[in-house]
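2024-03-11 09:14:02 INFO queue: dequeued item Uridine phosphorylase, len=235
2024-03-11 09:14:02 INFO validating residues
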Amino acid sequence: MSPIHVRGKPGEVAERVLLPGDPGRAEWIAKTFLQDPVLYTSHRGLLGYTGRYKGVPVSVQTTGMGAPSASIVAEELIGLGARVLLRVGTCGAVDEGLAPGDLVIAQGAVPLDGASRQYLEGRPYAPLPDAGLFAALWRKAEVLGYPHHVGLIATEDAFYATTPEGARAWSRFGVLAFEMEASALFLIGKMRGVRAGAILTVSNQIGDPELAPEEVLKEGVRRMVEVALEALLEV
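2024-03-11 09:14:37 INFO prediction written
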């Protein structure tokens, strides 16, 4: 069956894929970091590009917001030949040691989302990234010297339902930050036998009245993408 949402064809998607949620960020990544990027899909605003990074084929595919959308995109990418799925996105921090623009390399994701729950049919589960991809991300962040943190994140569904107090309560269990896609990607990676991981940029502390200044967030995202692409070269 041809993919319904990611309207690509076999051969158009690289084995290594970066997964931003935002189509604008997907376009920026492709045109800033990839050689000769080609748009292979724009259906539903899920922009997807394939180009080369240091000679290696890499795709950048928009997931949209939330685990349900990301899981659809992941399943269809795998059907199109993707074998490494790396989320690159933003997160809201709950650990006070994280500053705007810092990077977070996910060691695991607390699955507070409904997509993971449906896949698992309610079973308890601990979604983890691919060990080799996780190690490559950590190693590259160390080599490049960018401020970064390694540990647990939480994946949630309802952005506006979470209270600052409720989110920060998770910090005592080691959760560094909240986002909306990683747990489902990690789970699908294990189920389908592909590598999945996540690296994030801190946009704010949850409960802050505003996001980080635009220049701080933009530099954090640039660093995140650089680390991600360098890690992809090793897996």
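2024-03-11 09:14:37 INFO annotate: The first helix runs from residue 23 to 33.
2024-03-11 09:14:38 INFO item closed
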